Amino acid sequence: MTARLQALSEWVAEVSKLTQPDQIHWCTGTREEYDTFVSEMLLSGDLLELNQENYPNCYLHRSDPKDVARVEHLTYVCSKSEIEAGPNNNWMDPVEAKDLMLGFFSGCMKGRTMYVIPYCMGPLGSPYSRYGVELTDSAYVVANMFLMTRMGNEALAHIEQTGSFIKGLHSIGELDPERRYIMHFPEELTIMSYGSGYGGNALLGKKCHALRIASYQARTEGWLAEHMLIVGVENPEGEIHYLACAFPSQCGKTNLAMLIPPKSQKGWKVWTLGDDIAWMHLDDEGRLRAINPEAGLFGVVPGTNQKTNPNAYETIRHDTIFTNVAVTAENDPWWEDKETGEAAVDWQGRSYDTKSGPAAHPNSRFTVSAKNNPSYSSLAEAPEGVPITAVVFGGRRSELTPLVYQAKDWAHGVLVGASVASETTAAATGEVGIVRRDPMAMKPFCGYNFADYWRHWLSFEDRSDKLPKIFHVNWFRRDTDGRLLWPGFGENLRVLRWVIDRCEGRVDADTLPIGYLPKAETIDIEGIDVSPNTLEQLLAVDPQQWREEMDHIGEYLQSYGDRLPDRLSAEHKKIVQALS
Ligand code: OXD
Ligand code: MN
pLDDT averaged over the chain? Predict the structure, then answer.
């Protein structure tokens, strides 16, 4: 064994001494190994077989009913100093946090197997990829990591070559919400997660590594780790523009990433590169290039149907793990708005009764390899990534925010990103439907102080003159009767086309204090149920409402105190003055 793998085995030995598993299994990452885990989980009841004729190789996992979402109040960034973690994170002193966690982990794997999962985030061998090793006592986590990352022997070989990896220690513990913490130690490139088996808390490659720890690494190394989908939009002439889009959880990232152009948009195609996370680096020519660190999709199931997301609907017809959906009498998976079949048994395994709430949990999920997606881009595996034409921010806002607008320049775009706010959803525990500030859609995921993070974003302005243009979209604006004004889903392509037209300098726009707004005639509304009057409402900017919004944003930014970059305050001031 080489010295580099020696360090890994020593860590594994140390953890095993602490957690005392009955056995240790080093994952190889082969399909046969995955099939063995599935068979074992079918025996243990961790997985249930779904109708194999209609849904080949599809299984259902029912989680503990109190373990169904990310737990932001139990998620901590334990940097040495509290100010490093910033007001945007929960913070605990790293020594104290480790003491607490070591107490939980002590002996917790008795009677269980400890799985060693070497994994790669990003295409294997890409200079932009990073490696990690997760130690876990959950076979469900291993199976999900198999679908979501490039894991096993090949990743291990790269770890041996590069010598560096993120250490992730996970145990489902007793699944007791009182004994549950997700702790990050950015300075030590270490994650400790105890007491939950839910995706965002337990698949450590995803939010913990690819966002919280990676964002910290990205700052020191000069790149960006973002909560963004990546899509390629191909025009009828065959040119593809790549967009990276950030939306808070459950604002339709997966739907946008897998969009199928409606019939009216002849000749257009959309290619998926990623649906949740983008790592972006400047290349030698100063272009921002993105890779998707993930290899699979962990998407929200309810709402998926042949109209809203036909690609996802196809993607999850085979080789998929469903978590917390309902089942039909034929043992097919079922969820709200599936639009075929009906629930017989709810997500908790009880005979379904409409009075006891939704049949599928609102945050029920599918885990599936990205390769199942018919529109998976061939460049998703390209080690050099794809050049990004536009960065698009968005949020769920019933009022105020127009369908789309463009930031005037990079620094203004950073302010637009920092100002993202959205109505909360079921992806995290807590109250649903209140507006919360979610800068760059990274509120739950930035591994350090947001003020430093904005400074890092701003620094790109001095490093390149070929940066993407920045936009903001809102698919969720409603009229005074509460009806959505924009049809959304596939029709969102019409807005992406305007974004690309702007980047290519093909259309003029109106200059307003908040940014460049589309001239009504430059958004194609032919063939959809959006009247010119509705489009006017969608694009309306109410100066009084915006003055109030800018006051809220100002107060929010000021809560970062002296660390707030002057450049960002200056951008804010510019808009306030223009509005008054
Ligand atoms: C996710 C989330 O699961 O953002 O992607 O909650
Ligand atoms: Mn997400």
Answer: 96
Is the CB–ligand 1 distance for residue 112 below 6 Å?
A: no
pLDDT in tens, 129-182: 999 999 999 999 999 999 999 999 999 999 999 889 999 999 999 999 999 999
Q: Which domains does the chain have, with CATH numbers?
A: 3-48+68-221 (3.40.449.10), 226-294+378-579 (3.90.228.20), 296-372 (2.170.8.10)
DSSP 235-301: -TTS-EEEEEEE--TTSSHHHHHT----TTSTT-EEEEEESS-EEEEE-TTS-EEEE---SEEEEE-
pTM, two decimal places: 0.97
Of residues 261, 270, 226, the one with CA closest to residue 244: 226
Which residue owns the Cα nearest ligand 1 atom 2? 249
Nearest ligand to residue 301 Cα: 1
End-to-end CA distance of the chain: 68
DSSP 559-580: TTGGGS-HHHHHHHHHHHHHH-
Catalytically annotated residue among 27, 78, 108, 251: 251
Q: Is 251 a catalytic residue?
A: yes
| Ligand 2 center to 276 CA (angstroms) | 5
Q: Which of 92, 82, 94, 103 is nearest to 19 (CA)?
A: 103
Distance separating alpha carbons of residues 182 and 90, to the nearest angstrom: 11
Residues with CB under 5 A from ligand 2 (ion): 276
Q: What is the CA radius of gyration of the chain?
A: 23
CB of 444 shorter than 6 A to ligand 1: no
- Index of the ligand 1 atom closest to the CA of residue 199: 3
